[in-house]
Amino acid sequence: MDALFEQLARAWSRRSEGAAARIFSVPGDVKHLDTRQLADLEKSLGEWVAKAGRQDVAASRRRIFLLYLLIRHAGARLGEACACHPVQDYRAEARTLALGQGATRREVPVAAALGEALLDAVQAGVLGGTESAPLNVDQGHLRRKLYERADECGLPRELVNPSIIRRSRGIELLRQNVPLPVVQRMLGQSTPNLAGEYLDFSDADMASTLRRVVDRESRRTSARNSFFGQITRITRGDIQSGIRIASVGGHEIMSIITNASLDRLGFREGGFVMAEVKAPWVIVASAEPGKSSADNQLAGVVSRVEPGALTTEVVVVLGDGLEVCAIISEESRRRLALSEGDRARVEFNAFSVILDAE
Protein backbone atom coordinates (compact mmCIF):
# COMPACT_ATOMS: atom_id res chain seq x y z
CA MET A 1 0.00 0.00 0.00
CA ASP A 2 3.01 2.32 0.35
CA ALA A 3 3.22 2.64 -3.45
CA LEU A 4 -0.48 3.49 -3.56
CA PHE A 5 -0.01 6.27 -1.02
CA GLU A 6 2.89 7.67 -3.02
CA GLN A 7 0.36 8.03 -5.86
CA LEU A 8 -2.26 9.54 -3.56
CA ALA A 9 0.35 11.92 -2.15
CA ARG A 10 0.89 13.42 -5.57
CA ALA A 11 -2.85 13.82 -6.11
CA TRP A 12 -3.21 15.38 -2.65
CA SER A 13 -0.38 17.85 -3.18
CA ARG A 14 -1.78 19.01 -6.55
CA ARG A 15 -5.04 20.35 -5.12
CA SER A 16 -5.78 23.89 -6.26
CA GLU A 17 -7.14 26.87 -4.36
CA GLY A 18 -10.83 27.86 -4.04
CA ALA A 19 -13.78 25.50 -4.14
CA ALA A 20 -11.80 22.81 -5.91
CA ALA A 21 -9.36 22.71 -3.00
CA ARG A 22 -12.01 20.88 -1.00
CA ILE A 23 -12.23 18.17 -3.65
CA PHE A 24 -9.75 15.32 -3.42
CA SER A 25 -9.73 13.45 -6.72
CA VAL A 26 -8.86 9.77 -6.50
CA PRO A 27 -6.73 8.50 -9.41
CA GLY A 28 -8.94 6.50 -11.77
CA ASP A 29 -7.04 3.23 -11.36
CA VAL A 30 -7.30 3.19 -7.54
CA LYS A 31 -9.96 0.67 -6.51
CA HIS A 32 -12.09 1.76 -3.57
CA LEU A 33 -15.61 2.01 -2.16
CA ASP A 34 -17.25 5.35 -1.46
CA THR A 35 -19.02 6.27 1.78
CA ARG A 36 -22.44 5.27 0.48
CA GLN A 37 -21.22 1.84 -0.64
CA LEU A 38 -19.50 1.27 2.70
CA ALA A 39 -22.74 2.17 4.47
CA ASP A 40 -24.70 -0.28 2.27
CA LEU A 41 -22.23 -3.03 3.13
CA GLU A 42 -22.43 -2.23 6.84
CA LYS A 43 -26.22 -2.29 6.74
CA SER A 44 -26.21 -5.63 4.93
CA LEU A 45 -23.87 -7.13 7.52
CA GLY A 46 -26.02 -5.82 10.37
CA GLU A 47 -29.15 -7.37 8.87
CA TRP A 48 -27.26 -10.64 8.32
CA VAL A 49 -26.34 -10.72 12.02
CA ALA A 50 -29.94 -10.00 13.02
CA LYS A 51 -31.22 -12.94 10.92
CA ALA A 52 -29.05 -15.50 12.70
CA GLY A 53 -31.00 -18.29 14.34
CA ARG A 54 -28.84 -20.35 16.68
CA GLN A 55 -26.87 -18.58 19.38
CA ASP A 56 -23.50 -19.90 18.17
CA VAL A 57 -24.25 -18.74 14.61
CA ALA A 58 -25.24 -15.29 15.89
CA ALA A 59 -22.00 -15.06 17.89
CA SER A 60 -19.89 -16.02 14.86
CA ARG A 61 -21.65 -13.50 12.64
CA ARG A 62 -21.29 -10.78 15.24
CA ARG A 63 -17.51 -11.32 15.41
CA ILE A 64 -17.28 -10.95 11.63
CA PHE A 65 -19.34 -7.76 11.83
CA LEU A 66 -17.03 -6.36 14.51
CA LEU A 67 -13.99 -7.12 12.37
CA TYR A 68 -15.59 -5.26 9.50
CA LEU A 69 -16.25 -2.26 11.76
CA LEU A 70 -12.61 -2.23 12.91
CA ILE A 71 -11.33 -2.28 9.34
CA ARG A 72 -13.89 0.15 7.96
CA HIS A 73 -13.91 2.74 10.78
CA ALA A 74 -10.53 2.37 12.50
CA GLY A 75 -8.51 1.55 9.38
CA ALA A 76 -7.16 -1.66 10.91
CA ARG A 77 -5.38 -4.26 8.84
CA LEU A 78 -7.17 -7.60 8.87
CA GLY A 79 -4.45 -9.11 11.06
CA GLU A 80 -4.62 -6.15 13.43
CA ALA A 81 -8.40 -6.46 13.69
CA CYS A 82 -8.18 -10.19 14.42
CA ALA A 83 -5.55 -9.51 17.09
CA CYS A 84 -7.59 -6.74 18.74
CA HIS A 85 -8.65 -7.33 22.34
CA PRO A 86 -11.80 -5.29 23.14
CA VAL A 87 -10.96 -4.99 26.84
CA GLN A 88 -7.21 -4.44 26.66
CA ASP A 89 -7.01 -2.31 23.51
CA TYR A 90 -10.04 -0.03 23.81
CA ARG A 91 -9.80 2.96 26.17
CA ALA A 92 -13.37 4.05 26.87
CA GLU A 93 -12.46 7.30 28.62
CA ALA A 94 -10.40 8.51 25.64
CA ARG A 95 -12.43 6.64 22.98
CA THR A 96 -9.26 5.35 21.36
CA LEU A 97 -8.26 1.92 20.10
CA ALA A 98 -4.71 0.57 20.17
CA LEU A 99 -3.78 -1.18 16.93
CA GLY A 100 -0.67 -2.81 15.54
CA GLN A 101 2.62 -3.95 17.00
CA GLY A 102 6.09 -2.45 17.18
CA ALA A 103 6.70 0.43 14.79
CA THR A 104 3.09 0.39 13.56
CA ARG A 105 1.58 0.52 17.10
CA ARG A 106 -0.79 3.48 17.31
CA GLU A 107 -3.78 4.89 19.19
CA VAL A 108 -6.68 5.57 16.82
CA PRO A 109 -9.62 7.79 17.86
CA VAL A 110 -12.91 5.97 17.20
CA ALA A 111 -16.60 6.75 17.53
CA ALA A 112 -18.26 5.92 20.83
CA ALA A 113 -20.61 3.58 18.95
CA LEU A 114 -17.69 1.38 17.85
CA GLY A 115 -16.33 1.20 21.38
CA GLU A 116 -19.77 0.33 22.72
CA ALA A 117 -20.12 -2.43 20.11
CA LEU A 118 -16.84 -3.96 21.29
CA LEU A 119 -17.76 -3.79 24.97
CA ASP A 120 -21.27 -5.07 24.29
CA ALA A 121 -19.74 -8.12 22.60
CA VAL A 122 -17.72 -8.80 25.75
CA GLN A 123 -20.83 -8.47 27.94
CA ALA A 124 -22.85 -10.72 25.62
CA GLY A 125 -20.17 -13.40 25.66
CA VAL A 126 -19.97 -13.69 21.88
CA LEU A 127 -16.19 -13.57 21.66
CA GLY A 128 -14.29 -16.63 20.51
CA GLY A 129 -10.80 -17.04 19.08
CA THR A 130 -8.16 -17.27 21.80
CA GLU A 131 -7.78 -15.62 25.19
CA SER A 132 -5.29 -13.10 23.77
CA ALA A 133 -7.16 -12.59 20.47
CA PRO A 134 -10.89 -13.17 21.15
CA LEU A 135 -11.99 -11.69 17.80
CA ASN A 136 -9.80 -13.96 15.71
CA VAL A 137 -11.61 -15.87 12.94
CA ASP A 138 -10.57 -17.84 9.91
CA GLN A 139 -9.66 -15.13 7.42
CA GLY A 140 -10.84 -17.14 4.44
CA HIS A 141 -14.24 -17.56 6.08
CA LEU A 142 -14.46 -13.80 6.71
CA ARG A 143 -13.63 -13.03 3.09
CA ARG A 144 -16.29 -15.44 1.84
CA LYS A 145 -18.93 -13.80 4.03
CA LEU A 146 -17.92 -10.36 2.78
CA TYR A 147 -18.28 -11.60 -0.80
CA GLU A 148 -21.79 -12.86 -0.01
CA ARG A 149 -22.77 -9.48 1.38
CA ALA A 150 -21.23 -7.81 -1.68
CA ASP A 151 -23.50 -9.88 -3.91
CA GLU A 152 -26.48 -8.83 -1.82
CA CYS A 153 -25.56 -5.13 -2.13
CA GLY A 154 -24.76 -5.34 -5.84
CA LEU A 155 -21.10 -4.48 -5.25
CA PRO A 156 -18.24 -6.07 -7.23
CA ARG A 157 -16.60 -8.79 -5.15
CA GLU A 158 -13.16 -7.49 -6.06
CA LEU A 159 -13.90 -4.28 -4.16
CA VAL A 160 -15.14 -5.96 -0.99
CA ASN A 161 -12.01 -7.30 0.64
CA PRO A 162 -10.28 -6.09 3.82
CA SER A 163 -7.45 -4.32 2.00
CA ILE A 164 -9.74 -2.24 -0.21
CA ILE A 165 -12.15 -1.51 2.66
CA ARG A 166 -9.21 -0.19 4.68
CA ARG A 167 -7.95 1.80 1.71
CA SER A 168 -11.44 3.22 1.25
CA ARG A 169 -11.36 4.53 4.82
CA GLY A 170 -8.15 6.38 4.04
CA ILE A 171 -9.63 7.90 0.89
CA GLU A 172 -12.79 8.84 2.78
CA LEU A 173 -10.67 10.79 5.30
CA LEU A 174 -8.66 12.50 2.55
CA ARG A 175 -11.93 13.64 0.98
CA GLN A 176 -12.75 15.29 4.30
CA ASN A 177 -9.51 17.27 4.09
CA VAL A 178 -7.65 15.24 6.69
CA PRO A 179 -3.96 15.81 5.87
CA LEU A 180 -2.32 12.87 4.13
CA PRO A 181 0.39 12.34 6.80
CA VAL A 182 -2.33 12.03 9.45
CA VAL A 183 -4.23 9.45 7.38
CA GLN A 184 -1.07 7.44 6.82
CA ARG A 185 -0.16 7.41 10.50
CA MET A 186 -3.69 6.34 11.39
CA LEU A 187 -3.38 3.42 8.96
CA GLY A 188 0.10 2.54 10.22
CA GLN A 189 1.72 3.40 6.89
CA SER A 190 5.12 4.95 6.40
CA THR A 191 4.99 8.58 5.28
CA PRO A 192 6.36 9.25 1.76
CA ASN A 193 8.88 12.06 1.53
CA LEU A 194 6.55 13.86 -0.85
CA ALA A 195 3.95 14.29 1.89
CA GLY A 196 6.47 14.81 4.66
CA GLU A 197 7.92 17.82 2.88
CA TYR A 198 4.70 19.75 3.52
CA LEU A 199 3.54 18.95 7.04
CA ASP A 200 4.76 17.21 10.14
CA PHE A 201 2.22 16.13 12.76
CA SER A 202 2.83 15.09 16.35
CA ASP A 203 0.85 12.29 17.96
CA ALA A 204 -1.29 14.92 19.70
CA ASP A 205 -1.92 16.71 16.39
CA MET A 206 -2.97 13.46 14.76
CA ALA A 207 -5.27 12.52 17.62
CA SER A 208 -7.02 15.90 17.77
CA THR A 209 -7.43 16.07 13.98
CA LEU A 210 -8.94 12.60 13.75
CA ARG A 211 -11.10 13.15 16.82
CA ARG A 212 -12.76 16.16 15.20
CA VAL A 213 -13.49 14.16 12.04
CA VAL A 214 -14.76 11.08 13.89
CA ASP A 215 -17.06 13.19 16.07
CA ARG A 216 -18.38 15.00 13.01
CA GLU A 217 -19.09 11.67 11.31
CA SER A 218 -20.95 10.49 14.41
CA ARG A 219 -23.13 13.58 14.35
CA ARG A 220 -24.00 12.91 10.72
CA THR A 221 -25.60 9.59 11.54
CA SER A 222 -27.34 10.69 14.74
CA ALA A 223 -28.40 14.31 14.15
CA ARG A 224 -32.10 14.89 13.65
CA ASN A 225 -33.37 16.17 10.31
CA SER A 226 -29.96 15.60 8.69
CA PHE A 227 -29.24 13.39 5.70
CA PHE A 228 -25.65 12.70 4.73
CA GLY A 229 -25.36 11.33 1.23
CA GLN A 230 -24.00 11.36 -2.29
CA ILE A 231 -25.08 13.70 -5.05
CA THR A 232 -26.53 11.53 -7.80
CA ARG A 233 -27.76 14.21 -10.19
CA ILE A 234 -27.48 17.96 -10.71
CA THR A 235 -29.98 19.66 -13.03
CA ARG A 236 -28.88 23.21 -13.77
CA GLY A 237 -31.46 25.82 -14.71
CA ASP A 238 -31.19 29.49 -15.62
CA ILE A 239 -31.12 30.72 -12.01
CA GLN A 240 -31.42 27.68 -9.77
CA SER A 241 -30.27 24.06 -9.79
CA GLY A 242 -31.95 20.89 -8.58
CA ILE A 243 -29.73 18.49 -6.64
CA ARG A 244 -30.71 14.88 -5.95
CA ILE A 245 -29.00 13.13 -3.05
CA ALA A 246 -28.96 9.44 -2.14
CA SER A 247 -28.48 9.32 1.62
CA VAL A 248 -26.41 6.60 3.26
CA GLY A 249 -29.63 5.48 4.95
CA GLY A 250 -31.27 4.77 1.59
CA HIS A 251 -33.44 7.90 1.25
CA GLU A 252 -33.60 10.11 -1.83
CA ILE A 253 -33.57 13.82 -1.01
CA MET A 254 -34.23 16.68 -3.43
CA SER A 255 -32.87 20.20 -2.90
CA ILE A 256 -33.03 23.36 -4.99
CA ILE A 257 -30.32 26.01 -4.58
CA THR A 258 -29.13 28.98 -6.60
CA ASN A 259 -26.56 28.50 -9.31
CA ALA A 260 -24.33 30.96 -7.47
CA SER A 261 -24.40 28.69 -4.40
CA LEU A 262 -23.75 25.64 -6.55
CA ASP A 263 -20.62 27.22 -8.02
CA ARG A 264 -19.41 28.68 -4.72
CA LEU A 265 -19.75 25.42 -2.81
CA GLY A 266 -18.24 23.33 -5.59
CA PHE A 267 -20.95 20.65 -5.60
CA ARG A 268 -20.55 17.94 -8.22
CA GLU A 269 -22.19 14.64 -9.08
CA GLY A 270 -20.58 11.89 -7.02
CA GLY A 271 -19.62 14.28 -4.23
CA PHE A 272 -20.96 14.04 -0.67
CA VAL A 273 -23.05 16.62 1.17
CA MET A 274 -25.10 17.03 4.31
CA ALA A 275 -28.76 17.90 3.66
CA GLU A 276 -30.71 19.44 6.53
CA VAL A 277 -34.29 20.61 7.01
CA LYS A 278 -35.55 22.65 9.97
CA ALA A 279 -38.39 21.25 12.06
CA PRO A 280 -40.96 24.02 11.28
CA TRP A 281 -40.59 23.23 7.57
CA VAL A 282 -41.51 19.55 8.01
CA ILE A 283 -45.10 18.47 7.43
CA VAL A 284 -46.48 15.34 9.08
CA ALA A 285 -49.10 13.35 7.17
CA SER A 286 -50.93 10.08 7.65
CA ALA A 287 -49.20 6.93 6.48
CA GLU A 288 -51.69 6.29 3.66
CA PRO A 289 -50.23 7.32 0.30
CA GLY A 290 -51.87 10.47 -1.01
CA LYS A 291 -51.34 13.23 -3.51
CA SER A 292 -48.86 15.85 -2.34
CA SER A 293 -46.76 18.57 -3.93
CA ALA A 294 -43.88 17.94 -1.49
CA ASP A 295 -40.67 16.95 -3.25
CA ASN A 296 -39.53 14.80 -0.32
CA GLN A 297 -41.84 12.21 1.29
CA LEU A 298 -40.45 9.71 3.79
CA ALA A 299 -42.29 6.99 5.72
CA GLY A 300 -41.66 6.20 9.36
CA VAL A 301 -43.13 5.61 12.81
CA VAL A 302 -44.01 8.27 15.38
CA SER A 303 -41.65 7.79 18.32
CA ARG A 304 -42.56 10.79 20.43
CA VAL A 305 -45.27 13.43 20.70
CA GLU A 306 -44.69 16.48 22.93
CA PRO A 307 -47.95 18.48 22.94
CA GLY A 308 -48.13 22.15 23.81
CA ALA A 309 -50.90 24.72 24.07
CA LEU A 310 -50.43 25.91 20.47
CA THR A 311 -47.71 23.78 18.90
CA THR A 312 -46.63 20.16 19.20
CA GLU A 313 -43.28 18.51 18.54
CA VAL A 314 -43.57 15.23 16.66
CA VAL A 315 -40.60 12.92 16.14
CA VAL A 316 -40.81 10.32 13.38
CA VAL A 317 -38.21 7.53 13.12
CA LEU A 318 -37.42 6.43 9.57
CA GLY A 319 -36.54 2.89 8.52
CA ASP A 320 -32.79 3.44 8.98
CA GLY A 321 -33.25 4.81 12.51
CA LEU A 322 -32.82 8.47 11.57
CA GLU A 323 -35.11 10.84 13.46
CA VAL A 324 -37.06 13.62 11.75
CA CYS A 325 -38.57 16.23 14.03
CA ALA A 326 -41.55 18.37 12.99
CA ILE A 327 -43.23 21.25 14.78
CA ILE A 328 -46.92 21.37 13.92
CA SER A 329 -49.96 23.01 15.44
CA GLU A 330 -51.67 21.11 18.24
CA GLU A 331 -54.90 21.43 16.26
CA SER A 332 -53.29 19.59 13.34
CA ARG A 333 -51.98 16.91 15.67
CA ARG A 334 -55.48 16.32 17.08
CA ARG A 335 -57.00 16.26 13.58
CA LEU A 336 -54.51 13.57 12.52
CA ALA A 337 -54.94 11.80 15.89
CA LEU A 338 -51.19 11.19 16.01
CA SER A 339 -49.80 9.18 18.88
CA GLU A 340 -46.64 7.21 19.59
CA GLY A 341 -46.36 4.04 17.52
CA ASP A 342 -48.48 5.34 14.63
CA ARG A 343 -47.16 5.07 11.11
CA ALA A 344 -46.76 8.45 9.42
CA ARG A 345 -45.09 10.31 6.58
CA VAL A 346 -42.87 13.37 6.85
CA GLU A 347 -42.83 15.74 3.90
CA PHE A 348 -40.82 18.83 2.97
CA ASN A 349 -40.15 20.82 -0.18
CA ALA A 350 -36.86 20.98 -2.03
CA PHE A 351 -36.53 24.70 -1.30
CA SER A 352 -36.51 23.85 2.44
CA VAL A 353 -33.43 21.64 2.21
CA ILE A 354 -30.18 23.32 3.22
CA LEU A 355 -26.97 21.81 1.84
CA ASP A 356 -23.64 21.87 3.64
CA ALA A 357 -20.45 21.07 1.76
CA GLU A 358 -18.54 18.13 3.27
UniProtKB/TrEMBL annotation:
Coiled coil: none annotated. Residues 32-211 form the Tyr recombinase domain. GO terms for molecular function: DNA binding. Pfam families: TOBE. Keywords: DNA recombination, Molybdenum. Residues 220-286, 291-357 form the Mop domain. One of its GO terms (biological process) is DNA integration. Gene3D superfamilies: 2.40.50.100, Intergrase catalytic core. NCBIfam families: Mop (TIGR00638). This is TOBE domain-containing protein.
